[in-house]
Amino acid sequence: MGLGKISGELSFGGSPVNHLRLVVIVFCLCLGLIPPVYSQTNLLEDEKNTIEIFEKTAPAVVFITSKVLRRDFFTLDVFEIPKGTGSGFIWDKKGHIVTNFHVVEGASRLTVTLENNVTYDADLVGVAPSKDLAVLKVEAPAHLLTPIPLGSSASLKVGQKVLAIGNPFGLDHTLTVGVVSALGREITSMTDRKIHNVIQTDAAINPGNSGGPLLDSSGRLIGVNTAILAPSGANAGIGFAIPVDTVKRVVPQLIRYGKVIRPGLGISVVSDSIAERLGIEGVIIARVSPRSNAARAGLRGIARTRRGEYILGDIIIAVDGQRIRNYDDLAYVFEKYEVGDWVELTLLRRGKKFKVRVQLEAVEEE
Fold first, then answer.
1. In sequence order, which ranges of the chain are alpha helices (DSSP H)?
2. Per-residue confidence at 250, pLDDT binned at 50, 70, 90?
3. How far is CA 96 from CA 62, 118, 146, 222, 299, in A?
4. CA 66 to CA 211: how far, in whole Å?
5. Cβ(270)–Cβ(251) under 8 Å?
6. At residue 111, what are phi and psi to the nearest 5 degrees?
C-alpha cells in the first residue's frame, strides 16, 4: 500500500505497476546500480583517450593576466589596467610556469589563476624573446602544482593526433583536438629571429591559447602554442607551436640565469640588411671582442685605414662545412653545439677563402 501511495502521488499516467517500476528504476539509478545509457563504456577508445588526457592535464594549465600602469591625463593618478590574457602550464613543483614571451611582454604586473580558481601574483623569472618563451613563478602549495610530462618533438609524424588546452577568449580550460599538419615550419619571433622546426597543427588555436600546451596522445608535452595564421585573427585551421625539444633546452636556462646562454664566437656582426645591400652572402664580422676565442683565432672585424677608408671584416660563409647565408643561419647552426666545442669556420677575407678552428664560448641570447 505504501508503494502504491507513492506511485499515485507521482501520477505520470498509466497503471500502478508502471509507477512502481519507475520508482524502482529511479532508486537504482541513484544508487548507481544501473549504468546510465551514455556511460564511459559506450565511448570509443579515441574518445576515452581524449577525455583521460584532458582530465589529467587540465589542472596543469593556468590562466595568465598581464596588467600595465597608466597615468590619468587630468589627475596624474597612476592606475592599473588589464593588458591582455593568455595561457601557460606548470613546469615543476617549485611553481615555475611556462608561457609565451608575447603574453607577458611589457606587463608591470602578472597574475596566474590555477585550476581551483585561486589567483596568485607571479614573478617574471626569465624571458627568451627570440624563442617567444618566458618563465614565471608563483608561491603556491606544491600539492596544487601538477607538472606536465615532457615528450619529444624530434620523432613527431605528420598526421598523428594532438590536443591543445588553453584559455581562448578568456574561456578557461578549453580543449581542441587535431593532428600534426606539418613539421619543420619557420615563424618569425618578436626580435625578427627565426624560430625553427615549428609544429603546425589544425587543432583550433585562438587568441588566449598562446602559451598553452600542445600534447600527444599519451598526454606528454610536445609543443607550446604560440601563433595562428588567420587573416581574421581567429582560428583558420593553421596554428603553430614551439617544439618541446627547444623548450627543454631554453626553460632550464631561464630558470637558472634569467636568460639564454648559448655557444658563440664573441663577435658582433653587420646586419643582414646591409650585407644584402652590399651583395654579400654570409655573415660580416663587425667587431671581435679583444679577449675572445675569436680574437685568439685571428678573426678580424671592420678596420679603418689612415686615410679614413673602411676595410670589410671577415665574412663567415660556412661552419663545419654547413653553408651560412645570414645571421639566422649562424645562430641556428650554433644551437647544435655546446659551449667549449670546437668548430671549423670557412671565411672570406678580401676575396680569399680560408679555414680556421675556433672554440665556442658562452654568449647571451640576443
1. 2-10, 16-30, 45-57, 101-104, 244-257, 272-277, 293-296, 327-334
2. very high
3. 11, 16, 11, 18, 41
4. 13
5. no
6. -125, 150
Query: CA–CA separation, 317 vs 338, rounded Å?
Result: 20
| Local structure of residue 41 (DSSP, 8 states) | G
Whether the CB-CB separation of 355 and 347 falls below 8 Å is answered with: yes
What residues contact residue 32 under an 8 Å CB cut-off, 6+ apart? none
How large is the average pLDDT for residues 184-188? 88
Q: Which three cell numbers stand for residue 249?
A: 633546452
Count Cβ atoms below 10 Å from residue 203 Cβ, excluding itself. Answer: 24
Pick from 78, 66, 188, 49: nearest CA to 131: 188
Residue 243's DSSP bridge partners are 223
* Stated pTM of the model: 0.75
DSSP structural state of residue 207: T
Active-site residue numbers?
102, 132, 210
Helix (H, G, I), strand (E, B) or coil at 75: coil
Q: How many residues does the chain have?
A: 366
Which residue, chain included where needed, has cell 589567483? 119
- What single-letter DSSP state applies at residue 266? S
CB 292 within 8 A of CB 298: no
